[in-house]
Design goal:
single chain, Immunoglobulin-like, about 5% helix, about 50% strand, mainly beta, 3 domains, globular
């Protein structure tokens, strides 16, 4: 369908069906509907209270609560950030007068780091979507992205001669648009240009679909060229729509202490994706297609494959590490293996994040302490009974100086460390417990990101 037909359908939708936002319609005449959408890219998980009663708990970036029915009255709404020490910090307090038979979408947008985090409230009438139609409302929620044009077309339509369906600046939102159910394609360009910076590909929208779509900062893996993702909130939750070129990010790590340099190849390619990777080193993140990647690890000095076509499943928009670990030594039981794991790499302004891997074939099961000082005599482990090949990611730490110590499980005798680290909010830290070069003691930590 052509762009002018799309606009005609939108006009017809308004004239025939009005423009409310649906939480299902047909609710109580004394109640309002309220949901919360988290689109603050560097904000932590949050709890939301209304008049001191819990409304939403543990809402993370890119998520939306469902609509909750609440009495129509004035509410003091607080957004409470969840901090790594299990405390909360109230970052937003606002009063809202919620009216009956209306629905309200409270969208957290902006940045904690520059104190611009705020709640943008979108209000609509509480009404059902007409049969055979979908209803969509768009919000510009990405603070670093200037004014944009939004094209909503059939999947195959060329936008070269089309007019945008919407033009939005940061904090602006459209009216609700009612269009026939079907397949659509959403493209975003800087205002007045045809340079596409986001392309959804084909998006099927079934009859009755009712979405509030927020353009939010892209902090995901697999795509560094598109500045936004679309957080599509329904009445019950949300999903993230990525640019159609988005894959996943994959990083290779050499953790075999007695092995020479290796090449890493993907999907039977004869050209290494990573060449001459040596022990205690890691590659940059590589953008690769989502789906299954077959990973081969080759020792070029021996012209031999040590791992061949190991399937690794990668989801769109995520970050992964592929760690080669084990031992060449035939007398031990630690065969060379590939350990893939997903890593949480969203930077949160109120905390440092650390990811840890047990990659030492000599260390046995360990306890990990992250403490204010090197004295762990009365401390409990931050991570207890950490076993070989175990991984943990996205552990939030309060900003400030701390000491990392690793002991045999159940012991207070430090085997690795103590290592003093100044953890900074909004930064990422990673470490792999490793043997010395060629194996055995002294044990150590191979740090990456801010620990590199």
């Amino acid at each position: 369908m052509k762009q002018w037909l799309m606009i005609l359908y939108v006009i017809m939708g308004f004239s025939l069906y009005g423009c409310g936002g649906s939480s299902g319609g047909g609710g109580s005449h004394t109640q309002a509907s309220l949901r919360v959408i988290h689109a603050g890219a560097d904000a932590p998980k949050v709890n939301i209270t209304a008049n001191q009663s819990a409304l939403v708990e543990g809402l993370d970036y890119g998520e939306s609560s469902g609509f909750a029915k609440v009495a129509s009255q004035n509410y003091e709404v607080k957004v409470n950030a969840l901090l790594p020490d299990q405390s909360t910090l109230t970052v937003i307090t606002e009063d809202y007068d919620l009216k009956a038979e209306r629905n309200y979408s409270a969208i957290a947008i902006g940045s904690v780091a520059d104190n611009s985090l705020e709640v943008l409230v979108v209000e609509n009438a509480d009404s059902a979507v007409a049969s055979g139609y979908v209803r969509v409302q768009a919000v510009h929620g990405s603070p670093t992205v200037p004014t944009v044009d939004v094209y909503v077309t059939s999947p195959d339509e060329d936008i070269a001669s089309a007019s945008p369906a919407l033009t939005l600046s940061y904090r602006q939102f459209s009216d609700q648009l009612s269009v026939p159910a079907g397949d659509y394609r959403i493209r975003i360009t800087p205002e007045g240009t045809k340079t596409v910076v986001f392309d959804s590909g084909t998006v099927p929208l079934a009859s009755g679909t009712d979405l509030l779509v927020t353009a939010a900062p892209n902090v995901y893996g697999g795509n560094t060229t598109s500045p936004v993702v679309l957080v599509a909130a329904s009445g019950t939750g949300a999903s993230v729509i990525f640019d159609q070129t988005t894959g996943a990010d994959l990083r290779a790590v050499h953790a075999v202490s007695d092995a020479p340099a290796v090449n890493v190849l993907l999907n039977d390619s004869t050209t290494p994706a990573v060449a001459d990777l040596t022990y205690l080193n890691e590659s940059p993140f590589l953008q690769v297609p989502a789906g299954t990647q077959d990973v081969t690890v080759n020792v070029p000095s021996l012209s031999a494959d040590v791992l061949k076509d190991i399937p690794v499943s990668l989801e769109q928009g995520k970050f992964y590490n592929a760690i080669v670990l084990g031992s060449v030594e035939a007398s031990d039981s630690f065969d060379i293996e590939l350990l893939p794991f997903e890593e949480d790499r969203r930077k949160v302004a109120t905390e440092a994040k650390i990811s840890l891997v047990h990659g030492s074939v000599s260390a046995g099961t360990v306890d990990v302490y992250i403490t204010p000082t090197s004295d762990i005599s009365s401390a409990s482990p931050t991570i207890s009974n950490f076993v070989y090949k175990q991984t943990i990611t996205g552990v939030g730490l309060m900003p400030g100086e701390a000491v990392v110590s690793i002991t045999p499980a159940g012991s207070k005798t430090v085997a690795i460390g103590p290592l003093t680290v100044n953890f900074e909010g909004g930064k990422l830290y990673g470490a792999i417990a490793q043997d010395a070069v060629n194996g055995g003691a002294p044990l150590g930590i191979n740090g990456f990101d801010e620990l590199n």
